[in-house]
Hints:
alpha+beta
Amino acid sequence: MKRVQDGDGRPLQRLRWWQVADRSLFHLRPRPEVGQPGYAVDVRHWGDKVDGEVRASLYRDGRHHAVAKVPAVFPIEDGVIEVAVSGAGMKRCHQVAADGTERQLIPDPRSGAGRRARLERDHPTVSRSLAVLSVLALVVGLGLNLVQILEPLAQIPPVVERFGTFESPVQLPVWLNVSLGLLAALGATERSLRLRYHWLLDGAGA
Length: 206
């Protein structure tokens, strides 16, 4: 919260199709019963043009209300909005109410997360299959690369003295390693569109 700065009041810009890869936009509907207006969270993943820092901007009723480096916590009428990103995209954009209940903000329909949510709503079977493939890509890519990385690490003299040598049972060509890495990155990106994150799988995949 100490990093939160006041906004400049500019209007929220409409999300354009060419911004799908580098911009996330989420909305929180108004709740008149608790005096809470509508909010939007805008994140540019490629960073600020001036200093390269990734920041989250909070818009209140369509006007720039606050800004902070991520991870960010924005106080609002009923609790806070928490925003966090990973190397692959968003990993958290939730309201935590004063009573401790959480709810994810709604992705803009034009954003990557919004399009992914529409796929899940309209084609649940395809969505589930894609989710499973994403996890498999991360597990296979991470597992095979870790096994191969262990061999050069096991040749360090102090490691050899303590644990002995290790020879990887898997030796893949460079092109296949690169392909597995790309698949893992795609898997982490797909999961970030659903705000799914695991510190090992998604962190390494990203």
